[in-house]
Amino acid sequence: MQNSFVELNGRERARALLDEGTFRELLGPLDQIQSPHLEPQGIVPQSDDGIILTLGEIRKQKVLIISMEGAFQGGGIGEVSGAKISGALELVLKENERGNKLYPIMIFDTGGVRLQEANYGLLSISEIATQIVGLRKYVPVIGLVPGRVGAFGGMSITAELFTTLIATKKARLGLNGPEVIEQEAGVMEFDSSDKALIWNTIGVNQRFQTGLIDEVVEDTTDAVIEAIDTALKAPAKPAKTEQIDFYLTLLSNLDPTEPWTPERYREFYKQIQPVQQPVPLAKEGAADISDSRGYRWFSRLTGITHPVSDVPSVLAADVEKNGQLCRYVAIVPDASNRFPRVRNGEVGMLEGWTVAQVIKDAIRQDEKKETKRPIIAIIDVPSQAYGYKEEMVGISLALAASADAYATARLEGHPVIGVIVGNAISGGFLAHGLQSNRLIALDDSKVNIQAMSKASAARITKRTIAELDEATKKVPAMAYDVRSYSTLGALYSLLSGIQADDPQNSDVAIVERTISEAIESTKGAPRDLSFRLQTKEALAGGRTATNNVRQALSEQW
Question: 326, 332, 385, 519: which has the highest count of C-beta atoms within 10 A?
Fold first, then answer.
């Protein structure tokens, strides 16, 4: 197609948007900053790691363009590529804090986390998200999904945080790719060979009509520039992640047992009138409603016997500890959940929006208080939900709402402490835990932290599970065990000798003391996620590439 924006590569897209003569690339190919984690796996790295950063102007407005090259590793986010994005956004944020107007624009062409660098990808995406949430207070943050790959995985969560999301008619947006849903939930849930179904469910037309994408433009550079210019000049508007009552009302009226088509959902969506929803806080019940580590630790740390909630899969409670009120939050299995794909503790639509609700409730209550209550996230999430209905409605936005709420709380002064007592996998971890100021984990063989189940990771990377296990010996970020994770530098503390399945009083006391120390460590400290880049493990090699990228960016800025 003549003048097609989609057909351009990542660098050409960035250059095409900028006013003539204003293109300046940061950390370009000649700087030779590439991923150190690919070559040991037999993968040829790329000298810009698939991310193009350019400063310039669009119609005389100063912008930073972040463009993803989908032709390299499917646009996947690893350590270096993630550091380029988050580091650049941090510099844009600092410019705006100084009063120097600079607009960030991100061109999405990504499958999400680069599975060959799994946990680095998750860390990077959470760091990118916090920069976006911070930037929205100063300037519109514009996202563009042209086509080819689209915006998937953890980066679909990121996309939903943007002020305005623009797409061409060739774009797709979804948290879980059809192949992954088929792998995890079966072909009857989502047939990845049914291309018409895929496009009707996660294609741009459906996403636009159901509020996940803000504007659809023709596939020409001129049309894209015009849409960006309009978005930059538009009046301020609330983020899509603020629609908590709307989506909780929608979900309460949606019957998952009925057959749903994209067409039926479009009509259903248009009829929803939001009703203010009560905040569900846990109370004492007659018997345990769940049998999971997250449930047991929530009960022990809050002192609530047999906790129950009006939303059984989300437990939240305010508890006074050492004279300070803390809000505890956990996502737990609910065998009777209306949405079958979350009955084992996965984070689904209802869970994402409800967690956002209980966090935003704490923010509102403490808005005028000098001291904000700490928020304690008890983490035991096997993944996000893999389901057709979840993708149709937009689970990416639900998980973005939760991540947004945690990030907002932290940036406004609430200490956010994550306690990993079980699994912390994929989008579930991005939504519930990875926005924590400090992460505490139990040193236990059943604590697993990763970007995807082994079966799905093997299918996507075209490896056997044995080959995946072998690769983890060379790249700890690919491993699932918590000790490998601790070498990346993201943990405040790794607690050994704790009876994780059946915590005794002494175990609870150790965890409570560590939480209190973690809260204390946030006082007077930066409210961003920089702590995880400065731990001894991070400096000893866990985040060496990240810190090198950030240093090089600052020097070129």
Answer: 385
